[in-house]
Amino acid sequence: MNKLIITEKPSVAMEIAKVLKINQRSDGYLYNDKYTISWAVGHLVELAEPKVYDQTYSKWNLNDLPIIPQKVQFVVKKGTKKQFQILKKQILKADSIICATDAGREGELIFRLIYRVVGKKKPIERLWVSSLTKQAIQAGFAALQPISNYNNLYAAAMSRQVSDWLVGLNATRALTMQAGGNTLLSVGRVQTPTLRLIAERYLAHINFKPEPFWQPELVMSYNNQQFKAVYFERLNDKNKAKEIVDSLQGITTTKLISVTNKERKEQPPLLYDLTGLQKKVNNLFGYSAKETLSIAQKLYEKKYITYPRTDSKHLTDDMKGTMKARLQNVGVGALQPAYETIEKIEFSKRYFNNNKVTDHHAIIPTNEPAKTLSVKENNVYLLIAASLIMAFMKPCIKLLTTYNFEPNGHKFLSKGTVVLQEGWRMAELFKNNDKEEDELLPKVPQNESVKIVAVKNQTKHTKAPPLLTVATLLALMENAGKLVEDDDEEILNKFGIGTPATRAGIIDVLFKRNYIANKGKSLIPIETGLMLYHLTKELYISNIEMTGNWEYKLKQIEAGEQPVIQFKQQIEAYTKKIVDEIKAMVVQRTDMEECPKCKQKKLLRKSKLLDCTNDGCDFQLWFTIAGKKITAKNIKDLMNNGHTAIIKGFKGKKGKFDTALKFDDNMKIKFNFK
Ligand SMILES: [Zn+2]
Fold it and tell me: Do 439 and 227 meet the contact criterion of CB atoms below 8 Å apart?
């Protein structure tokens, strides 16, 4: 019997080979007398390009749209053809196959597409593990599943791939051609709503008009400790603020009228799912979502953490027995003092909840001691390690104190915080230092007099909504459902834009296509991205509710609750609708200037010339004239005044010459020798 094991990546194959003692090496695979193990390199098979269905599709044409193939075709990816051939040979040779690609939607698809293209039926079993430790792999091989258990997952994966391809292909071609065909305007079910979030926040930020407000402040002193008290509300009226401040001149003491003490208990945070980890890491260290995912993937392959592409923040009851060893493993070094405060391991419902785990549980450390980590890997690992320790620590208890003063009848408040019990915060190795420290207040008995040292009245301004960072964007994507009004609560609360496994990739696509850029830690749309936002903001393709609903339906397919054929029909109808919508739109390009000849706002600035897009007008202005590239100032002079000053360095038959330029009556460029 020759069993062929197929993994998603070489590194995972090596781990499994070690556990199963598969030691013989060959080109592209390992083997022993019982097993052969080989690997994919991510996706080896992809959807065929449109021209494979019909040669005429190689040219983009509005009239061909929508392109909806009756039956989709797959082709072997060019760059990884060699590995595919190795796998194909092994599949044909094998008696049976064990699918050991990553345990998730994309992992399932990677295996199934290879198997589909090879096209030879063999018995298949599925390995389903959440970590790569020896115990996990052994347990997984002892409990291999029939592949048919994962048919719904495959159906969901396939539906996702084909439908995103259909919509992206058709909408991108339609919009690009409708907008003149000069700039690639890439549109997609997930990337377009994401771009919209970034652009909308950016516009709200730059268009924000700060309003002045006033809030008088007292500098107080008690037992030689200074603290401040702030007027209880913001005032929009400068004169009223001045009146208050004036009426306090000469007052040197005031009584503490009342004190409110509120105890606040802060439970330790939930464990990390991928999006939660990406948000936290971006916040603390500024790594992009993609970088965090790749660091987490490495930690997983090194066996130090469990499978990172998860959307669960919980653990299952059957994991309780493994907690002690995991905690011992991470409760060393910087985390040792926190670990040692755990007196008894108690399993809280807050963390252990079978109902809140689907494919994978939260990301937690394994019991494998982490060695040889890079600085970045160490940062991410420590966060994950700390999160598990925190889950078994006591709550943090704070006392929030408010003092109420009323000098001359005006209400002023002092707010401060005292930490009564540090609890899980002891395991917080990294803190965001841009958070304001809570003010420490002196202990003042009620009715006691305190000194007023100074009265301040500064003009302050309301602040614009902050630009999005990766952390705040991920939070918005995760909770996008909540941005939409009155719809099915269940759908909206559960689904956002994209999935934890794909969000990093989506943001990356926007960068690669030059639609967004970094501005410090913030994300902003740039020229083409902003234009794309304006073109698509009214269209269904940028609709946040749509993409959330779609994700919901894919989950239903995965659960076997929605027939694939029904989803397919909906997507085809949706694709037609999107294309019709784009075809019907009048593209109001934001980058068109007024043409000096026909006076219509149809002049397009291209890389080498100004070109009028009005059909009845032939105006063009090339930027290189007689071998000389003219300057932006020259172009401006021509457009505004119809002529330029003398420009040096034109090239003619008899050598270089200098001249001014002007438009003739037909708005053609002419030399203007004076
Ligand atoms: Zn014109």
Answer: yes
Instruction: Let me know: does 198 contact 530? Beta carbons within 8 Å.
Output: no
Model pLDDT for residues 577-610, shown as the tens digit of each residue: 999 988 887 665 556 788 889 988 778 777 678 8
CATH class of this structure's domain 162-206+466-584: mainly alpha
pTM of the model: 0.77
Contacts with 396 (C-beta within 8 Å, 6 or more apart), sequence order: 265, 266, 419, 421, 422, 423, 424, 425
| Delimiting residues of CATH 1.10.460.10 domain(s) in the chain | 162-206+466-584
Find, among 235, 317, 306, the residue nearest to 273 by Cα: 306
Q: Using the mean position of ligand 1's atoms as its centre, give its distance from the Cα of residue 176 in Å.
A: 22
**Quick one: pLDDT band at residue 215, thresholds 50, 70, 90?**
very high
Tell which residue, 643, 639, 637, 642, has the closest CA to residue 603: 639
Report the separation in Å between the CA atom of 175 and the middle of ligand 1, taken as the mean of its atom positions.
Answer: 23
Alpha-carbon distance 294 to 285, whole Å?
15
pLDDT value of position 182: 76
Just give the CATH number of 3-44+80-143. 3.40.50.140
Cis peptide before 66 (omega within 30 of 0): yes
**Cβ(305)–Cβ(131) below 8 Å:** yes
Q: Distance (Å, rounded) from C-alpha 242 to C-alpha 459?
A: 11
Give the Å distance between the CA of 588 and the centre of ligand 1: 16
Which residue numbers are catalytic? 307
In whole angstroms, what is the distance from residue 590 CA to residue 424 CA?
Answer: 53
In angstroms, the CA 194 to CA 480 distance is 10
pLDDT greater than 70 at residue 436: no
**What are the structure tokens assigned to 467, written together?**
């630009």
User: Looking at residue 115, what is its pLDDT?
Assistant: 97
- The CATH 2.70.20.10 domain(s) of the chain lie at 212-267+396-461
611 CA → ligand 1 middle, Å: 8
Please tell me the predicted confidence (pLDDT) of residue 589.
59
Tell which CATH architecture fits domain 274-390: Orthogonal Bundle (1.10)
Q: How far is the CA of 599 from the centre of ligand 1 (A)?
A: 6
Q: Where in the chain is the domain with CATH 3.40.50.140?
A: 3-44+80-143
Collapsing DSSP to helix, strand or coil, 430 comes out as coil
Ligand 1 center from residue 663 Cα (angstroms): 14
Q: Which CATH number fits domain 212-267+396-461: 2.60.34.10, 2.70.20.10, 3.40.109.10, 3.30.565.10?
A: 2.70.20.10
CA dihedral (131, 277, 483, 590) in degrees, to 10, reads: -110
- Residue 144, both tokens: 């291999």
Provide the pLDDT for residue 443: 87
Q: For 248-290, write each residue's pLDDT tens digit.
A: 998 999 999 999 999 999 999 999 999 999 999 999 999 999 9
Q: Mind listing the pLDDT tens digit for each residue in 503-561?
A: 999 999 999 999 999 998 899 999 889 889 988 888 888 888 888 888 888 989 999 99
> Over the chain, what is the mean pLDDT?
90
Residue 414's nearest CA partner among 253, 580, 234, 226 is 226
| Residue 616 CA to ligand 1 centre (angstroms) | 8
Q: If pLDDT is split at 50, 70 and 90, which confidence band does 489 have?
A: very low
HEC assignment per residue over 506-524: HHHHHHHCCCEEEECCEEE
493 CB contacts (<8 Å, ≥6 apart)? Answer: 481, 482
Please give the distance, rounded to the nearest whole angstrom, from the Cα atom of residue 603 to the centre of ligand 1. Answer: 6
Query: Which tokens in the block code for residue 35?
Result: 């097993």
Range with the poorest average pLDDT among 182-196, 226-240, 475-489, 564-578 = 475-489
